[in-house]
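Suppose a colleague, Dr. K., hands you the sequence of a protein chain of 481 amino acids and asks what its three-dimensional shape might be. Before reaching for any lab equipment, you can write down a predicted structure in token form. Begin with the sequence itself:
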Amino acid sequence: MKILLTGANGYIGKRLLPSLLEQGHEVICCVRDQSRFPTEGIFSHPNISVVEVDFLKKPVLQAPMQGIAVAYYLIHSMSDNSPHFEKLEEQSAQNFVALVEQTAAKQIIYLGGIINDQKLSKHLASRKKVEEVLRSGTVPVTALKAGIIVGSGSSSFEIIRDLTEKLPVMITPKWLNTKTQPIAIRNVLEYLVGILLRPDTYGQSYDIGGPNVLTYKQMLLQFAEVRGLKRFIFTVPVMTPRLSSYWLYFVTSTSYKLATNLVNSMKVEVIAKPNPLTELVPLKLLTYKEAVALAFQRIEQDSVISSWKDSLISSYRGSSLVEHIHVPTNGCFFDKRLKIISTQEEQVLDNIWSIGGKRGWYYGNWLWSIRGFLDKMVGGVGLRRGRTNVNSIHSGDTLDFWRVLVADRKTKRLLLYAEMKLPGEAWLEFKIIEKGSDKYLQQTATFRPKGLLGRLYWYAVWPFHHFVFDGMSNNLINYKI
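The predicted structure, expressed as tokens, is then:
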């Protein structure tokens, strides 16, 4: 069967893709930026075709899309900075419907959010509107609606992890007493695959949730139990939504915009309404604790397929990572280091491919931490995003406050682009090159300033760069695990 998968670079899409391939389907992956789509492992499967589509523009039916039987709509963003994101999401859905109606598709499958009609946050209202738009077409829609999705790399999982592991005692807002019904990512994927071309699900909408109805406070405490931690949580009524958003922003790896949207959503009770889906698609629903334990198995095995942190920040709207791959030379400042490799080349490559996250930056980690904190203070992403996997890295991944543009072990090149708040643009590149019979690590930091402020910034941080970049390049060639 031929299937169209939108959001194939996203958290759900990347995890659904292997399940579809295992069943022998041919999958057409729709992505906004093809340069971010992985090309290794399961993602190099011969049954995958990748097409670049921006659904905010009127899409053109491309040859690989002909003959699709099912189309998944997995496009959604809670971190969009646009004040008109509801209109943008509605426009995206309309363009998707127009495209699918040009095909032979028999079913649209949509993953949205559980709706409490009495009180909707802006994002839940937007998801409801998207479903209405999808149903306005002629292709039958099957909608699944979930609340908190628990899995390694999911935004809710990582935020709860940050809070639980960093704070032994928490003074929290009263919305932690709001009830919700979390569901394991494994169960979400089983449902998404289980309703494929099921005529008895056409035109239907199903709430999906796990077997436990919990408050957010109970979720934090049960998370701590799984991790063997003792935590104390006290809720107070004085924390406003703005204070709550800042609380999440500074303690966790989330952006302030996402924190605001999460707080608004978390004030609304989200419990699945009874429906016959569990009979139509029988499966074992994992408890919340089982889902958390399974997520940590993935983390410990370094087999996290996708992470919400890898989604592009809003500053990339209308642009592609490809635009930044060619590092500029005119009007730029440079810090270049060339170090002869006296150890094994493969060990140096391993060190480069393990940079950031828990490993750190090989020199002056406390200075990197201060830089990350300062970035958070001005509304940036900071260092808390870490990295999705310990040793593997791919184009499009996040790496602390960098974005991976190129990660090619064959050409021995890693290129990073800065997503921190800067008065300019910055790149950091690592390459292993040959000169005569010797091999060298070539490390280059490039900064393209914007105006006078950018130039003043470069000269202000240059003394720190001198020590940090030199120490980092030395340790990259000498560090041994």
